[in-house]
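re: ur question from earlier - yeah i can do the single chain one, its not a big deal. heres the input i used so u can compare w yours
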Amino acid sequence: MLLHAAAVAGRAAGRAHRERRLSATAVAALDEAGFARHFVPHRWGGREGSFSDVFTAAATVAQGCTSAAWCAVLWAAHGRFASFLPHAAQTEIWGTSPDARIAAALAPTGSARAAGDGWVLEGEWSPVSGVNHADWVLLAARMDEALAASRTGMFAVPRGVVEVRDTWNSAGMRGTGSHTVVVRDTFVPEHRVVDLHRVLAGEGPAGGARCRTAPAHLAGGLMFAAPALGAARAALKDWTAWAVQDGEGGARPLNSLGIPELLAQASADIDAVELLFNQAAERADTADVDSALVALNRRDAAVGAARLAGAVDSLLQPGAARSGDVDGALQQRRRDVLTIASHGALRLGPAATAYALALTPQDAADPEAGAERERTAR
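and the output i got, formated as tokens:
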């Protein structure tokens, strides 16, 4: 199913790039591959799957189409977030199928005011990847309560109640359709709301599946980075196919000065990042969770994404490839990888700070500070 999804998405990649959205055939192939149901609880027919498996699956699909892999892995991740909602909301989302596609924006740029047995939600959220193909949307907003301090909630709303503004027109990842979502004075019943901190901290049921008890940062960066790995692999394959072809006068680019060294360096970098990512995914699935583990995985995701961007970028330097072919597949994959590496979840600065704090020995002398660091990292 995965190879089929990669092939279908690959054939539709050019169209996705032009139209700035995935094709219906690509979306159907991703559904068949099981992305949307990957983290859905067993009771609804889901897999409650592992981080390693969804990481590998997304990287595989990205070898066909980076945008398809991005939407697929986010639909999986958002199913994990939705599993923190009350049972009644889960029934609405998955009662008829575990393959409901869920888009999300968890930066709290909206607001909600109490109204009867629910909340009136409004605001704008951007970017919201894959929203045009979603069945539901998860949106974060500040909750204003008359008798209590404000808190932040995650609200589940049907796709049909939101307005989608066509605002996504980036150079890379064009097919993700990561547009702006607008909600105006929309009532959301209490059973479709959960405190966002519970979701991000992984405060699921005791003894539940790992995917329901893991903090968001433990594998979040890895899932964002998975499409970059697949795209880098595809870029290297395309570049190598060009390098070994006979050129003008029978000369092969691979025999040119510096090209073998470039191939060795880029391929080794991509191989090394894959090993780094696989190790981090295994930790996410099996290791005891604390702030140090979360920080380590954040570090590896951010550093790995930057190294992938550097490796792919090196293949397009003047003299290293047909760099003037601005509309070619290799150039598009380069733009995709650079766009992913620049995502906020993969920025090295915050990841490096969290990693440094996790190693700070002050925790032994100041337990309260240590506990606060762990909450922040999670």
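The mean pLDDT is 92. not sure if urs matches, ping me
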